[in-house]
Amino acid sequence: MANEVPALGGLPHVLSGKVRDLYDAGDDRLFFVASDRISAFDHVLASTIPDKGKVLTQISLFWFDHLREIVPNHLITASIDSYPPALRAYRDQLQGRSMLVRRARMVPVECVARGYLSGSGWKDYQRDGAVCGIKLPAGLRESDRLPEPIFTPAAKNHTGHDENIGFDAVVAAVGAPLAEHLRELTLRIYAKASEHAESKGLILADTKFEFGFVPGSDLHGTLAAHGQAADGDVLVLADEVLTPDSSRYWLASGYAPGGAQPSFDKQFVRDYLLSIRWNQQPPAPALPDEVVAQTRAKYLQAFELLTGQPLKV
């Protein structure tokens, strides 16, 4: 089965998402393994996309490094030689798709930045001319660039699609000081990531981040480099970062506002499922080899464009 969770050296299994499996690595650490599972319409499909988990992990590692001057992150190491001994026997299984991270107390909000009008933002705009309570100019088209990037948070929903919420709801959930900081930090990260993406011929239309708190003493060196105090808990960037699964990337050369744009994630998968008129109820179908190959190629293309490197397989 595509969604079976493997045992790993006696580490307790904490939970599994649609793609990642999480294990308790002790000492306030978690072990992340990104599978090759793929989901669409909130269901994990019967097929996998070879190397997808490696793409997601290695893109996140690239961005953790690229953004380190803006925000610390939860990564401890992605080197198998530095993993606990019980995990090293699984080198072939874990190489390129795993991370040892600090266990963070997660902020209960998805921090979304949008620079273009697409996806659920486009649907909200069509309905009321605003996204997450932010009024936008009249007459915008689908995929238009916004006058400036906006912070459009979402409530985490583990049973379905995340729900767009207004900034006031973030304040109610976490307090005004943290809400303001999350908005400012999200837009700063988006600006830096967009600049890099543009230099590689890509448009970063929107993306979502997750943040959490870890003890400051665990990040003493990093915090000192950022001029931040090492006392108390510290906000860090966590989970996956700026991957094709959490972000909407478009090729700049083909950008044509006024409709949906080809993206780098599950386009071929969604198109196929719509073509066969799947009722979006279990059991989820398998994918033809051609759709699997096209989807894998898109993930690899995104990785190579963003990083300038071939995937470490």
UniProtKB/TrEMBL annotation:
Domain of life of the native organism: Bacteria
GO MF annotations in UniProt: phosphoribosylaminoimidazolesuccinocarboxamide synthase activity
CDD domains named among the record's database cross-references: SAICAR_synt_Sc
Enzyme Commission number: 6.3.2.6
Principal EC category: ligase
InterPro entries: SAICAR_synt/ADE2_N, SAICAR_synth, SAICAR_synthetase_CS
Domain (SAICAR synthetase/ADE2 N-terminal) ranges: 14-281
Keywords annotated in UniProt: ATP-binding, Ligase, Nucleotide-binding, Purine biosynthesis
Pfam families in the cross-refs: SAICAR_synt (PF01259)
Pathway connected to this protein: Purine metabolism; IMP biosynthesis via de novo pathway; 5-amino-1-(5-phospho-D-ribosyl)imidazole-4-carboxamide from 5-amino-1-(5-phospho-D-ribosyl)imidazole-4-carboxylate: step 1/2
Protein name: Phosphoribosylaminoimidazole-succinocarboxamide synthase
Gene that specifies this protein: purC
